[in-house]
Design brief:
Urease, subunit C, domain 1; TIM Barrel; eight-stranded mixed β-sheet
């Protein structure tokens, strides 16, 4: 369906990097933001969207997501990629990093191939902005729901082969205390790939060395990592404390209200601040689906899980087994549970993950020249419209606009 080349959104509460404009106007042309301000800009050929006082924000950027809508990226089909992108667009996500689980080299290479095919096709949902390989170089004691049979130490021959197989790997999570992990971090840095600390039993000193060797992000802070521990009677600070103490380290958090309760959400915001904290869904296939039985990972070979209480659990309910969060819920929880201002919560879902991924020149802020990835939502942070590159990919039924159609 052909879209108008220009869209003018009026009567919006526009969330910019500096303020919330109470009666804002945003002009979009050819997929880019052309104007943000208070004047009702004269654009004769534009389709006018009356936001009716809704908030207008940059599109949400999810830098760690496994699936949604009944699909997982490890299903390794283009259809699954498209369905996941469309599912998360309903909840305000305009860009995301498809994320793997720990797997064998063959499965990872297959995932790279499928990602390349999916990224080359147009989707009616969120954009793909690079793969996140989560594992297989993890500490066995901190594996969580990761399959132990695939967990191993960094192997230079293996990771060099995987990195050479695709230009689409944007980030890779690993445990820095493992043999070979420092060389791995340095190699990732040399290839322009973001190295992150994850599923780890490291202590503070290990993390300091990791930062010196290229690791700059703490993957799902608190989940799958060490805190204060004792070794030979002496206490050691763990990865959690290191993430707080090291200003050079960014953190990402699963703000679903289950993985991290309100006091921890407040603590992360108080210490790291919105400029160093990214919100992630870490969602598996159950996101956007009703409670009940589901599968973590590949639909045929993955782990059976149970979705209840807003989270995925192992069938015996002994442990969490994944998130079913969506981006709108994360923002809503930071406002309602953590008690932070809306502008900070939006920053943690937009400009901060954009900067972490190196996309700050094109995505993550409402500003002239940026990609026209924007969302409209109400006071309850219920998504009413999602635009990717100026094209509406989701419109709520009650937000029916003449001349504006969902792609």
């Amino acid at each position: 369906m052909e879209q108008a080349s220009s869209i003018k959104i009026i009567n919006a509460r526009a969330i910019t990097p500096h303020r919330i404009i109470s009666d804002g106007c945003v002009v979009i042309k050819d997929g880019k933001i052309q104007y943000v301000g208070t004047e009702n800009a004269d654009v004769p050929d534009a389709t006018v969207v009356d936001a009716q006082g809704l908030y207008l924000a940059p599109g949400f950027i999810d830098l760690h997501v496994h699936g949604g809508g009944g699909h997982d990226f490890m299903d390794n089909t283009v259809a699954a990629y498209r369905a996941i992108a469309e599912t998360h667009a309903r909840f305000g996500t305009t860009a995301l990093c498809p994320t793997t689980l720990t797997a064998g080299k063959g499965d990872l290479l297959r995932t790279l191939e499928v990602y390349g095919n999916a990224a080359g096709q147009h989707t009616r949902g969120a954009q793909f902005v690079g793969l996140h390989l989560e594992g297989p170089y993890f500490a066995m004691n901190q594996r969580g729901a990761q399959d132990p049979k695939y967990i191993r130490n960094p192997d230079a021959g293996e990771y060099r082969e995987i990195l050479a197989a695709s230009p689409h790997i944007r980030r890779w999570s690993a445990a820095p205390e493992l043999p070979g992990a420092m060389a791995f971090g340095r190699y990732l840095r040399s290839q322009g790939v973001l190295a992150a600390v994850a599923h780890t039993d490291a202590v503070y000193e290990d993390v300091v060395e990791a930062v010196e060797n290229g690791y700059t992000l703490s993957t799902h802070l608190y989940s799958g990592m060490s805190g204060v521990t004792r070794r030979n009677c002496f206490r050691y600070a763990g990865v959690i404390e290191a993430a707080y103490l090291l200003d050079a380290m960014d953190v990402e958090i699963i703000a679903d209200g289950v993985h991290l309760p309100a006091p921890l959400l407040k603590l992360v915001h108080k210490i790291k601040g919105p400029h160093r904290t990214a919100l992630i869904t870490d969602a598996m296939r159950g996101a956007g689906m009703p409670p009940g039985k589901s599968v973590l990972g590949n639909k045929d070979t993955g782990l059976e899980v149970l979705i209840e209480d807003g989270v995925a659990k192992l069938p015996d309910r002994s442990s969490f087994a994944g998130s079913v969060a969506t981006a709108d819920l994360l923002v809503r929880n930071m406002v309602n549970l953590a008690g932070i201002c809306l502008a900070d919560a939006v920053q943690m879902m937009t400009s901060t993950p954009s900067r972490i991924l190196g996309l700050q020149d094109t995505k993550g802020t409402l500003a002239e020249g940026m990609d026209a990835d924007v969302v409209l939502f109400d006071e309850e942070i219920t998504i009413k419209a999602t635009f990717v590159n100026g094209t509406p990919v989701y419109l709520a039924e009650q937000f029916n606009l003449p001349r504006l159609h969902c792609y």
